[in-house]
Design a protein that fits this description.
The complex is a heterodimer. The two termini of chain A are 25 Å apart. By secondary structure, chain A is of the alpha+beta class. Chain A has helices at residues 12-20, 56-71, 102-119, 139-150; strands at residues 2-6, 28-35, 39-40, 43-44, 47-52, 74-82, 84-86, 91-99, 122-128, 131-134. Chain A has a four-stranded mixed beta sheet with strand order 1-6-8-2, with helices on both faces. A four-stranded antiparallel beta sheet of chain A has the order 7-5-9-10, with no helix packed on it. Chain B is α+β, with helices and mostly antiparallel strands. Chain B is 29% helix and 24% strand. Chain B contains three helices and five strands. Chain B has helices spanning 8-14, 29-37, 41-48, and strands at 2-6, 18-21, 54-57, 60-61, 73-77. In chain B, strands 2-1-5-3-4 form a five-stranded mixed beta sheet. The longest helix of chain B has 9 residues, at 29-37. The chains are: A alpha+beta, B alpha+beta. Chains A and B meet through β5, α2, α3 and β9 of A and β4 of B.
Chain lengths: 151, 83
Amino acid sequence: MSIRVQTEDFDVGVEINRLRQQRPDIGAVAAFVGQVRDLNQGDAVAGMTLEHYPGMTEKSLETIVQQARARWDIMDALVIHRIGHLKPLDQIVLVAVAGAHRGEAFHACEFIMDYLKTEAPFWKKEQTPHGERWVDARSSDDDARARWHEA
Amino acid sequence: MIRLLYFARLREALGSVGEELAPQAGLTVEALMQQLAQRGGIWAEEFGSGKSLRAAVNQTLAPVTTEIHDGDEVAFFPPVTGG
């Protein structure tokens, strides 16, 4: 398991190769990449600043990945989340999960993202033509997370 | 002493990144929020108005009934918006 919180960009190809290299028991890698959009709630977004809670961030991401590992038979997982100033088209987050088969990898990847969205202490502040504003949490993210309790 | 931390919109509204406080025996997250709200002004607005704040005790999300002990790190922040 690897958890990284960093200002630098990441190379998805390099990261996935590192996850699966020398592991012929891995048959599937599922990955999610989040990217900064140039529009939110009807307003142009010129950029954003991502703040986090050092210490708790890493701890919460580790807990989320451990929960995924307890639930699905996956072999490895990687979470990279960027902080600091980002602009449209920049990558924000990478979640990659390796398993023997695609089912576990897909499910665990989505589970990790849904929990990251609702539990990991990151906050976005957007720069718009009306000035800076903190992004509000969305109830659809809570709904996405709640699905995993029903399953 | 307990270490209090404020993040994101809350940090800006309060004009404070955090502080140290001496906890009373049996203090809970909820009681601490009431105590902070009693400072009035922006503190009452943020901690007393039922605004949706999250709390973490020792870097784990904590319900308002969680007890706080000497040496704990307690953080308050708005709902998270990463990813």
